[in-house]
Amino acid sequence: MTAQKPNLVGRISGVIFARAKTWFKTFKSLTAKVLFKKKTGLLRYEWLYSDNSDCSKSPLVDITASSQHIRLYLGTSGDQSTRNPLLHLRDLLEKYVDVGRAIKITTKLETGEWPPEKGLDRLGEYLAYIGKEEVDFEHWTELNVSLPTNAPLPFIAHSLHSLPPYALANLKRLTWSAHREQLITSWLPFTPTLLYTLANLVMCCDLSLIDCSYILHYGKQLNELTVRTLRRDISPVLSKKIHASEVTHLISLTLRSDDDLVPLLTQCEFPSLRRIDLDLLYPNTLTFRSFKFWSNLETVNLSGDLTPEDVHWIGSQYSHVHHILKFISGLAIIRCASATRC
User: Fold this and answer.
1) Would strands 268-269 and 299-305 be described as parallel, antiparallel, or unpaired?
2) What is the rounded CA–CA span in Å between residue 125 and residue 42?
3) What is the per-residue pLDDT across 222-254, written as a single tens digit (0 to 9) for each?
4) Cis peptide before 82 (omega within 30 of 0)
5) CA nearest 311: which of 293, 284, 292, 337?
6) Of 227, 226, 173, 163, which is closest to residue 195 (Cα–Cα)?
7) pTM metric for this prediction
């Protein structure tokens, strides 16, 4: 028995050594694959290493990051690292961002030393790099985009700098400030796939009534929608007709408009609507009694050129609410809130 013990110990040691060797090879292989992916990822984005040939200076890139928030500003006057922006971005993400948790991304483009269309491309390329190589799109839950609003920026779609809408399945909040043309000509087109998952959408740009109806039609999960501003004198870019919809989950609706809202608010049904905020910038022709959602509302904020008849009728509908009515030089401001909340 004593003669067999060394053999048994040797066998056990051999098995452990063999398994450790196999584990080490596997670990080495996985590490090599990760490093190779990083290297090839950087090579695919090697355009970020070089300056834009159309610019007299390197584009200003201001990047900051915390555990759940990435800020990326292009063309601003912020501090810029002397290192290559891509390497700086990669190091910041690896050092500060918790890649396994929900992430908020804030981006801003300002015109600087480069043509604006180049800035739009660059911003899309940076965002694509983050989502495809560093922080997977599935962790993006909030996105704030601020682009120039005074004129559309030229854009040619390219797979390298696009954000695939199907990959943003967990994006719940989107704030969008840009020229309306960028709704279809940018690296984040407003497709039904993108709109479907959103719970909160803030549009800080001029839109047509038809485009707003398109957003309501495809934003099936929207809880809150804010649009500033609906314009009567602009052409639609997302659709060619008013969409009739039942916006099942919408709780809060905020609209600033110089167009007649009747076609929009009568074509859509809002069974869950509890708050409405309307800023009317035109001589009012609304027939408020035609809206079916009044009885469900808990909070109402209206401002505009309302007739005394409208004011009286709206007030008469709210025996269950506390309301304050004011007239200032013909401008009616109505704020109603549930009495239980006063």
Assistant:
1) unpaired
2) 12
3) 999 999 999 999 999 999 988 888 999 999 999
4) no
5) 284
6) 173
7) 0.79
